[in-house]
Amino acid sequence: GTFTARPTLGSPMGAATWYAIGNVLSSVAIVLVNKRVFAAGFHFPFTLSFFHFCFTVVFYRLLLACNLFELPSSPMPEADKFKVAFAGVASIGFMNVSLSLNSVGFYQVTKLTIVPVTLLINFYMYTVSTTHKVKLSLLILLAGVGIATVSDVDLRPLGLAFGVLAVLSTAMFQIWQGTKQKEYGMSGTQLQYSVSFYQALSSCGLSLAVESFCLAPQQLDGRGECSDSTMAFLSQWRAGRVPDGIVGTILATCFLALLVNWCSFGLIGKTSPITFQVVGHAKTCLVLIGGYVFFPVAGNAQQLYNNIAGVTVAMFGVVLYGHLKHASSEGKPDCLDSCCPAPISRCLDVNKYATVSPSETEGLTRHDPDDSKRNTGPD
Q1: Are 29 and 284 in contact (CB under 8 A)?
Q2: What is the C-alpha to C-alpha distance for residues 327 and 335, in angstroms, rounded to an integer?
Q3: I want to staple 269 with a disulfide (CB 3.0 to 4.6 A). Which of 6, 185, 188, 231 is the partner?
């Protein structure tokens, strides 16, 4: 019999698996800790992102000083560093603005469209194509997540514009995370180090422009003083009017943000932006399942049925996607090859079935033994 080696931690598949697990756990953790920060009155995402990126810069500088981190052998041009960094910060900003201007349902639709937009950009800009089998698994996944999460879709023209910008910036940022690692021969951590300074700079600019001062009347208190800005929060903190431990909680989000980015850069570098999106949607399903199990609430029965059905369909798409990618990497037939008729299998994966097996045409044409004798000479 044949022996197939299992993925180990040092293998690309083993590393990708651990990156995926780390991404799911750290992402869920940072959402929970960020909620505590926002509940304490510090609801300034750009400023919080600025702290995260500053922490990343300092962290890698310390590792570099202790000879625990190696710079990339091929330096990344400053223009590329800024381009990748700005796309990442723009993704955060446009997603937040889109959520504030649109309904939660449209926000979920925006997140779902990142996958097809990434496929289109990969195809037209980088000539990277995807098999119809993988597209089918992604369609099943997105349909399931849509059923589970999209309830109401309230669309506004300005919200639509920011939603489009959010999708484009997110797709380009995730694509560049993969292409720049390969282009300059660097690891995920080296790319994270390379762009972190410009990410801190960009988020600092947005924080100063949007969150440091009161720009709207609703940000003023009854006395007409600014009460909803980072400067106002700093004054309240100095006066001791904010919950204790807020600084420690913000520092905890910095550690978690570093871990989230490390796993994200590593996962995309080992796999692709599409796989990263699949992991993200699987994480959404797991969060929904956890909510059903640990925090059951009485509500709309129809929405509960939709959630259960959607999660079931989505997880089937996730499992099918993983199975197809694994079978393709091993060069083995997948489940669709086994259960689908040959014409359908050929349509789903044209390249794999570009050559027709003789067994498929056997009996369809007449074979004359004398043909070999008549056609032995040159034409």
Answers
A1: no
A2: 9
A3: 188
pLDDT one-digit tens code per residue, 287-310: 778 777 766 666 677 777 888 899
CA–CA separation, 284 and 318 (whole Å)? 12
Q: Give the mean pLDDT per block of 10 residues along the chain (379 residues).
A: 46 83 90 86 90 95 92 92 96 87 83 94 91 92 89 78 94 95 93 96 92 70 71 86 88 95 93 92 82 68 82 92 88 86 79 50 45 48
pTM of the model: 0.81
Helix (H/G/I), strand (E/B), else coil: 355: coil
Cα–Cα dist 359/341, whole Å: 14
Q: Which of 309, 308, 316 minimizes the C-alpha distance to 278?
A: 316
Q: Which residue has the tokens 């697990």?
A: 21
Contacts of 191 (CB under 8 A, 6+ apart): 72, 76, 84, 177, 180, 181, 184, 265, 269
Q: Tokens for 207, please give them.
A: 């924080």
> Nearest to residue 199, comparing CAs of 316, 55, 339?
55
Half-sphere exposure of 113 (CA within 13 A, CB side): 16
DSSP string, 236-289: HHHTT-S-TTHHHHHHHHHHHHHHHHHHHHHHHHHS-HHHHHHHHHHHHHHHHH
